[in-house]
Amino acid sequence: MSVSVELSEFGATTAPVAPAERRRWDLRKRPLLPADDPFYRPPRTFAALEPGTVIRTRYVHVAALSVVPQRIDAVQLLYRSTDLDGHPEAAVTTVLLPRGADPAVPRPVVAYQCAIDVVTSQGFPSYLLQRGAKTLGSAVPIEFFFIGAALRKGWAVVVTDHEGLDGRFGAPREPGYRVLDGLRAAMNHGVIRSDVPVAAWGYSGGGMATSWVVEMAGTYAPEINLVGGVLGAPVGNPHNAFWRLNGTFHAGLAALVIAGIRPRYPALSAVIHDHVTLEGRRLLDLAGRLTTVGAILRLAHTDFDDYVDEPLKELLGTPEVVAVLDDLQLGTHKPSCPLLVVQPVHDQIISVTDVDGQVERYISAGADVTYIRVQFAEHLSGLPLSVPTALEWISARVQGRPTTPGIRTVWTFRSRPFAYASLCATTVRMLIGLPITPVVSAGIGKLFRRFR
Predict the structure, then answer these.
(1) Which top CATH class is 3-236+329-451?
(2) pLDDT digit string (tens) for 73-82?
(3) Count of CB atoms within 10 A of residue 65's CB?
(4) How many Cα atoms within 13 Å fall on the side-chain side of residue 330?
(5) What are the tens digits of pLDDT across the range 380-389?
(6) Spatial CA neighbour of 82 closest among 160, 8, 180
């Protein structure tokens, strides 16, 4: 699926791209940051559109670590979505397919939510996946290798800027709206089919966003055939997370959430204005301009108790702040599809107890949940170690096989050794720029034939 796109308002025309035309594009030109890129700015009249309507499209070149060109077809879509208050907004998604894949052929779709974890647009996947992007300080370039593992299975992958154009890290519900509308936009555009199974997947900040996808799907986009969601270390309880991280090496993550959500909650902004010192407000402003790694390093061991005029515990207990934190709570809506939740027991950032609570709320609501608590992993290692398990579970869902719900604590992930070897092989191929050759299992082959 190689397309040349005429930029047009409210839908784009597409035509096949000849190899010669692809070579004429200037690969030396660095992409603009989303904050400076006119592609991200919708026309004033876009609010009248239906959610999921494509506003603008373009073909982009993607690269591993922003340097090694990939033989992957990538189309970016600007489309109409909905914000936290139900107001129209624009959002961007990137649709990835193996080079030359025919969009008319039915193939499962993975909606992959990256751990964006920043406010600045420098951390948006639509920027970081492009060749020439400045990737230092973000986890997204590393996650690209796991996206590649999904592409190798012959699937399409949709990667949405789920924080929105303003980088609202930590905001509730609207990440789900943006991802679901991104899928609608890809289906409306024709780059993926609307009659294929879709699975959602994400880890850490991406797991939190995926939680909102599966919680919102049943009411917001019931027409999408969402067959499963993989939630890796999905936060569970933002209130507890903020309190636990404050003053630790990872205090910058807590600051990033406050910087991301305060524009959406006037009551929270008022509390910050009235009770946080000028230096404390400057730190929050600084967090909004930093990458994930930059915020962690710059704000390491920051104790926000030192920047408020009354004890932080009392401020977090005020009705205004409690109302905000309650609104951020995950597990308050029954997911519309089966779930796989994976969580390291010894996670230094996200408490296993908080994720236990999120899972318990899902199970109490009647959801189908497989929950794996892993002893031999911590937060950073939990993502690569869980990738084969996630891919195997998604394969079973798109093939329509039954789930095995339940809660179990294991020493390590029990994937086949071949699965890890395949992941390593995919990573090496991407690092040296070789094609990601699709590996289609017999089960998925049967699925394709059933749709023909």
Answers:
(1) alpha beta
(2) 999 999 999 9
(3) 16
(4) 32
(5) 999 999 999 9
(6) 180
End-to-end CA distance of the chain: 18
Cβ-proximal residues to 229 (8 Å cutoff; 6+ apart), any chain = 199, 200, 201, 210, 211, 213, 214, 335, 337, 338, 339, 340
The pTM assigned to this predicted structure is: 0.91
Instruction: Give the residue among 322, 326, 301 at the shortest CA–CA distance from 313.
Output: 322
Collect all residues with Cβ–Cβ distance below 8 Å to 231 and sequence separation of at least 6: 202, 207, 210, 211, 214, 339, 340, 341, 342
Look up the CATH number of domain 238-327.
1.10.260.130
Question: What are the tokens at 374?
Answer: 């892993």
Tell me the domain boundaries of the chain: 3-236+329-451, 238-327
Look up residue 30 and give its DSSP letter.
Answer: P
Q: Phi and psi at residue 169, in whole multiples of 5°? A: -65, 125
Query: Which whole-number Å values give the CA distances from 245 to 186, 271, 299, 371, in the listed order?
Result: 38, 20, 11, 24
CA dihedral sign, ordered 350, 336, 118, 306: negative
Contacts for 24-32: CB closer than 8 Å, 24+ residues apart: 25/61, 27/61, 27/69, 27/131, 27/132, 28/132, 29/132, 30/132, 30/133, 30/134, 31/60, 31/127, 31/130, 31/131, 31/132, 31/133
Per-residue pLDDT, 16: 38
In contact, 298 and 255? CB cutoff 8 Å? no
Name which of 395, 441, 440 is nearest 415 in CA terms.
Answer: 395
